Amino acid sequence: MALKHEEVCFIGGEWVKSRHDHMLEDINPANGEVFAQAADASPDDIAQAALAAQTALDDRSWLGMDPLERGRTLGRLAQLLREHRDELADVMVEENGMPMNFAQWLEIPMAADVFDYFASLIPITGGRTLPFSLPGPQGDYLLMTLKEPIGVAGVITPWNFPLLMPSWKVAPALAAGCSVVLKPAPETPLTALALADLAQQAGIPDGVLNVVPGGDEAGRALVRHPQVPKIAFTGQTQTGIEVMSMAAPFLKRITLELGGKSPQVVFDDVDLDEVVSGALFGVYLYSGQVCQAGSRVLVQDTMYSQFVEKLTARAKALTLGSGKDVTTDLGPIISASQRERVLSYVEQGKKEGAVLMTGGKAVDRPGFFVEPTIFSDVKATMTIAQEEIFGPVLSVIPFHDEEEALALANGTRYGLAAGVWTRDVKRAMRVTRQIKAGTVWLNTYQILSPTAPFGGYKYSGIGRELGPDALEAYLETKTVIVDGNEQALAFF
Ligand code: NAD
Question: pLDDT over 70 for what percent of the chain?
């Protein structure tokens, strides 16, 4: 398979061995077997990649390119992602276990669209001319702003969307004219290297996109590297806090996309079957390993038992299996340790008095599978209602009225996303305005668009990715004031 690059980093346009002898084992979570070895970058490798990225900035091979040609180059990358869809999907399914349909019909096409979208912003992104004001007689001044790339962007991504998460950052960074050092998750290095391969084929100059597979130490080295002024990070909230504190002494520009415990609020005026389907998709997509998973379903008490009964029946009918099997609804959990973590939350839920309606066990087969799990009678204070589990575990919580629904919806430290299911437009608007979350879906869940800003309130992050303003996260604004008067203003 041409796109499968084992044991290497991609630095300065070349496939190079890590300076570290140690390798990362790429494990297929659907059978627990090691299927590839990947580089485990050392801080020296990170420094090498940062140097290559800085050299590419200095020689202006990318930024000096005609802006329309830069856009066309990103467009070619989008097209190559589409053309290599099947090959890429094979790599992705093998290393992170996602269902093949999900890789082929959602993640890869969306990643391609993200590159197209940011390519389209290149020719319309620039500074402004603005009115100039100074006390005293009006002089002749020209005030303008220029937009300039921040410099080298350090990109650190998780394993759950191995192509999409890098794309959300690499596409705007490249559109802004930055060069990039991408440190992908240790669980999914090969997908990131495949992206680098296609970027090179698309004509992105050497050193502009560097990919350095490695673990948490490599991530730390990137955050602490003095020549990397921008860090774009997606991962757990606790890691984000550490990233922020490591970046603070350098005053680095940071974007943090972190965890969530998102609510889906279901009022009793809805069509029950429709919402049960929506809620299932909201929580079990990719086995719940999705940052915006609607892992708390808040249901009005008048329809609570009916809802729980239908939801449980539907969850029991879902099929677990390898992502390669097209009939699979839920693939595996990413690793044995993450499976244990999910199961320990299940035990905690039982201990704290929630009622286990279905699931709750590991599946007796090779790989790391957990049954789709539903708890009812969950109280807002329970651990399973407060902490991000990142697995197929759903808490169903009853509420009496709108006021209580809002208190529950906003009652965690997170604020990534929320769903509201109701046919009452006025109520939908009231609730939407009062929910503290970066995205609110009305009568739907999970759907995203390259044009839609995405990010979190509260402990779910800082900044927004996607959408028209996302480029700003990779740009500095330079103010230029031109004095057109005969005599320059001077007090002395
Ligand atoms: P993680 O925080 O363990 O790791 C994420 C990345 O950070 C990995 O590449 C890892 O090697 C690196 N890393 C770990 N410690 C580091 C450190 N101290 N300094 C620098 N880099 C470090 O997260 P994960 O378990 O891989 O991913 C799951 C998490 O990601 C979940 O919490 C999920 O909610 C979150 N997520 C958020 C979004 C979003 O858009 N908000 C999207 C996807 C995933």
Answer: 100
- Tens digits of per-residue pLDDT, 64-86? 999 999 999 999 999 999 999 99
Nearest CA to ligand 1 atom 14: 216
In the reported structure, the alpha carbon of residue 385 is separated from the centroid of ligand 1 by a whole-number distance in angstroms of: 21
* pLDDT score of 240: 98
CB-ligand 1 contact for 473 (6 Å cutoff): no
Q: Is 159 in the pocket of ligand 1 (CB under 6 A)?
A: yes
User: Which of 100-104, 160-164, 488-492 has the weakest average pLDDT?
Assistant: 488-492
Closest CA relative to residue 456, chosen from 161, 256, 160, 298: 256
Find where tokens 């398979």 sit: 1
18 Cβ contact partners less than 8 Å away, ≥ 6 residues apart: 7, 8, 9, 39, 40, 41, 42, 45, 214
Whole-angstrom distance, CA of residue 450 vs CA of residue 455:
13
- Is the CB–ligand 1 distance for residue 215 below 6 Å? yes
The mean pLDDT of 295-305, rounded to a whole number, is 98
How many alpha carbons lie under 13 Å from residue 259 in its C-beta half-sphere?
19
Give the chain's mean pLDDT: 97
Evaluate if pTM is beyond 0.85.
Answer: yes
The string of pLDDT tens digits covering residues 422-445 is 999 999 999 999 999 999 999 999
Atom of ligand 1 nearest to the CA of 257: 41
Residue owning the nearest CA to atom 16 of ligand 1: 216
Q: Is 349 helix (H, G, I), strand (E, B) or coil?
A: helix
User: What structural domains does the chain harbor?
Assistant: 8-258+460-478 (3.40.605.10), 263-442 (3.40.309.10)
Atom of ligand 1 nearest to the CA of 243: 19
Q: Ligand 1 pocket, 158 CB below 6 A?
A: yes
Annotated catalytic sites, by residue? 257, 291
Q: Judge contact between 115 and 75, C-beta under 8 A.
A: yes
Q: At 366, which helix (H) or strand (E)?
A: none
Task: Report strand pairing: 296-300 vs 393-399.
Answer: parallel
pLDDT of res. 369: 98
